[in-house]
Design brief:
The protein is α/β, with parallel strands linked by helices and 436 residues long. It folds into two domains: 202 residues, 3-Layer(aba) Sandwich (Rossmann fold); 144 residues, Rossmann fold (3-Layer(aba) Sandwich), CATH 3.40.50.2300. Helices cover 41% and strands 14% of the residues. Strands 6, 7, 8, 9, 10, 11, 12 and 13 form an eight-stranded mixed sheet that branches. Helix 1 packs antiparallel against helix 2 and helix 9 crosses helix 10.
């Protein structure tokens, strides 16, 4: 894998270089070596022995070096949504990196911290990251990042490579390095709905998401000289969304929605029961094959705005291979998701940046390296990102939102199918810049 340095290959190259230098001593035309020739031979032998010893020591050091400790935080045991796909992917990504030489010869060691949907336990994860000497907290998702990011930042530990910015610290703290575009994919829904010819658009936002999602969505509508007919705020958990669906579809030909996978399950049931011909727009990893189950016909043709290209596309070849090799049940968890692909991308980004560090990889050296990364290229998992340029002329408080591009897919017979793999920048829409 090109992004990692293979220590064995490096040692082989050093050995060839030493041998070439050793051949330059030269001898005499007599059968018996002269004193000068003998001395040169001794010197060459000593030089070769020293170089071999150094290479052996280097290989031994790398083999016995302390692993680079990383942490991933998510919810695994709770009454609400859980994200086993994140934990599974974090461990698969670590195995993949280690099998390809690690980080400059050092292995990585991952601890998955289950915050159990509890802010106090999330704060405990932060303290554990500090106490264990974690270099970074990578590819995580939690609703309680506000209890984590300020704590780990005091020890130069980055909150790195995550999909979804839903707290102020994730959007503004200098130790926060998101790869995902949240909340821009909601802006993408508006863009696509308008381009699809929708005349009357209503919005549905799950409770708790209004502060982050509503301003840029309404700005996007203003950019087109429009406004939502109404904005429906729904509870995160409900046994029946029939009343909410009725409100959302009233007077609308299209509805843009922001909610997680669990409420989408109940929402789509109510959507099917309503027998509406209103077109549905949703967000990647949430409006998906799992949440559409049982409502395949009603959700057919629904548009999904996302952060990452579909898992079946080329950027995810290694990820799919890792899932297959591990025999992971991909029906039980959605890996074509923000949690799955987001965590894989986060680890690949960490490895790419950390592999370029000269000297020891520490929390501080990684923070400095990430902060100076201007061309993070993950081969199409996300757009090429520049961590040196904050979004200072963007929405106030969203300055760490480096990725502001979306991709689109749709539901066909209950399956997610990519529409294209082109990233579309929606920065201007999020700011309400008038569109031609």
């Amino acid at each position: 894998m090109k992004m990692f340095k293979n220590s064995i290959a490096l040692i082989a190259v050093l050995g060839l270089a030493v041998t070439a230098c050793g051949d330059d001593g030269g001898g005499t035309s007599t059968d018996e070596p002269s004193a000068t020739t003998a001395e040169q031979g001794d010197t060459t032998a000593e030089t070769t022995d020293e170089a071999t010893a150094e290479a052996t020591d280097e290989a031994t050091d790398e083999a016995t070096a302390e692993p680079i400790k990383l942490m991933t935080v998510t919810t695994l045991n709770a009454n609400g949504p859980t994200y086993e796909n994140i934990a599974i992917t974090a461990n698969l990504a670590a195995d993949f990196i280690n099998s390809n030489g690690g980080i400059n010869g050092r292995l990585i060691e991952v601890e998955v911290c289950d915050e159990q949907f509890d802010p106090a336990i999330a704060a405990g994860c932060a303290r554990q990251a500090v106490e264990s000497g974690a270099v970074s907290v990578v590819g995580s998702f939690t609703y309680f990042a506000e209890a984590i990011v300020p704590v780990i930042a005091e020890s130069d530990i980055t909150w790195f490579g995550f999909c979804c910015s839903i707290t102020p610290s994730e959007l503004s703290n200098p130790y926060s390095f998101p790869l995902g575009n949240q909340p821009m994919y909601a802006v993408g829904e508006v863009k696509r709905a308008v381009e699809d010819g929708c005349e009357n658009i209503n919005a549905v936002i799950v409770d708790g998401g209004e502060a982050v999602f509503r301003p840029p969505m309404e700005n996007a509508m203003k950019a087109y000289g429009r406004e939502f007919g109404q904005v429906v705020l729904t509870p995160a958990v409900s046994q029946d969304f029939s009343a909410d669906v009725a409100r959302a579809t009233n007077g609308a030909d299209c509805v843009v929605t922001v909610m997680s996978e669990t409420p989408y399950l109940t929402w789509n049931t109510a959507w099917a029961q309503a027998e509406t011909d209103v077109k549905l727009y949703g967000i990647q990893g949430n409006l998906n094959a799992i949440s559409a189950k049982g409502a395949e016909e009603a959700t057919d043709g629904s548009i999904i705005a996302g952060m990452y290209p579909d898992i079946m596309t080329a950027p995810w070849d290694d990820y799919r291979a890792a899932l297959d090799a591990a025999g992971i049940d991909q029906e039980a968890n959605d890996f074509n998701s923000l949690g799955g692909m987001g965590t894989w991308a986060g680890y690949m980004a960490f490895a790419q940046i950390a592999s370029g560090i000269e000297g020891e990889v520490t929390a501080q050296s990684f923070f400095e390296a990430a902060n100076n990364t201007s061309n993070l290229d993950l081969g199409g998992m996300v757009p090429v990102l520049d961590f040196t340029q904050e979004w200072t002329d963007g929405i106030p408080g969203y300055n760490r939102l480096f990725n502001r591009s979306v991709v689109f897919s749709q539901l066909e017979n209950g399956k997610v199918v990519p529409l294209d793999n082109e990233f579309v920048d929606v920065s201007d829409l999020a700011l309400g810049v008038p569109q031609d």
